[in-house]
Design goal:
The chain is α/β, with parallel strands linked by helices. The protein has 17 helices and 19 strands. The strands form four sheets. It has an eight-stranded mixed sheet, sandwiched between helices. It has a five-stranded mixed β-barrel with strand order 3-4-5-7-6. A two-stranded antiparallel ribbon has the order 1-9.
Amino acid sequence: MLTLKTSIAELTRVGKTVAQQMGKLEIKTVGDLLTHYPFRYDDYSKILSIKDLKTKKTGTIKAKINLIANHRSPRKKMVITEAIVSDQTDSLKVIWFNQGFLTRTFKSGQQIYLAGKINYDNYYGLQLTNPSYELCKDKSPIHTGRLVPIYPSTAKLSQKQVRFLVRQILPLIQEVPDWLPREIKTKYNLTSLSFALEQIHFPQNQPWLERAIHRLKFNELFLIQAQNQLIRQRIKNREAFPIKFKLKETKKFVQSLAFKLTDAQRKTSWEIINDIGKNSPMNRLLEGDVGSGKTIVAVIAILNALINKYQAAYMAPTEILAEQHFKNITELFTPLRDKSLTEFKNFKIALLTRNNAKINSGRKIKKTELLKEISSGKIDLIIGTHTLIQEKIKLKKLSLAIVDEQHRFGVAQRAQLIRQSSINNHQSTIYSPHFLSMTATPIPRSVALTLYGDLDLSIIDQIPPGRKEIITKIVKPDEIKQTYQFVEKEISEGRQAFVVCPLIDPSDKLG
């Protein structure tokens, strides 16, 4: 008997190969398949005559097979199946590639549904190429004559296979508990979960499909918000070492800078300083365009942590950025060495990446030695990449963790950093560090509050004087050519450009 936990391999027509392809899509159980939703739909819902199809180019026809036969292409050596079909209005040529079995599936005189797009061939004229097909005796077609679901798939897993398997398990939607309370469904005019699951896979019409999408989107956002609230509650229940605000020292540091802080930098710095002064952990997202001054805001928080005799960690997404931050932050603290304030004289700053280990004194240090110094608390500020997590360093007195580029650092990695840095005061109290994430991604406030609802939000909405405005654009696929022409023009005028290519597997080595 099938259940939601039944292995996908137990379904009819699922052999070892199909199960492997399903596994690539992370579909291992019947329940996984039920929540493997289509990403678009082909509208073949109207049954057209052949005459109308020739005009409209795309749709479903109900036609009789007059003739069907295979022949082999001399050039590509593929099997081509050709058929002539007709109805009361006209006749049409149909071709399929590498589907020679169709001459055994169909017989002359049979009525079938065909759904697809008509192409024009210089030699044969109009023809229907590689259409979906079903026998007319099928009471409820799933490949033609309806809004046809198109699923995320793999090269060796056809849409027909996925649809067949989903149709097979569809009765199990009744086993999925509808966990939303009735009053919420009534308030927001939401359909039942069973209806939504049925219609998302095989919608009867467009309005019902839209209702299904609305319900399932609500589910996703509801769960994100619920999870965020749980995370917030857990954070509130933890304790952190309050980092006392050192007004005199902070003023001296700000005055030593070669530039003046913007009002937005001052405002966000004050929000962070207020948070880290509490005995519950800060959990904040700092958002600002490239060049808006996020780093200096972070450094002001780091300064206060170090003066209070705590450690701070600064994580960057790549080795190149980590080295840049090490250089810049070391330089920011250097002028303070000449001042009368003794607190700044002995800050020990370290860089730790997969390929590099440095300290700001300039003394050469081996990675193993640096790891010991970090664990013993001798290093005040540790700047690095994901290596800080991968090396599983025990950070003895970490009170402030800063992560650059929030979207590159997930919840699991954040939890790992907190676990490594949690401090036990031998009285059964575990202290967690204050946590600051930073991103240059221009996330609208409403979206940020939804996706990062477990984080408080600070936004630097001001560019320092002399900086040009950052323009962010989304380029559509059909605009790529014009975009590269624009880049070429800018380069020819002496400007620079760089392209960031995402890796399938993260790598510090490539920076």
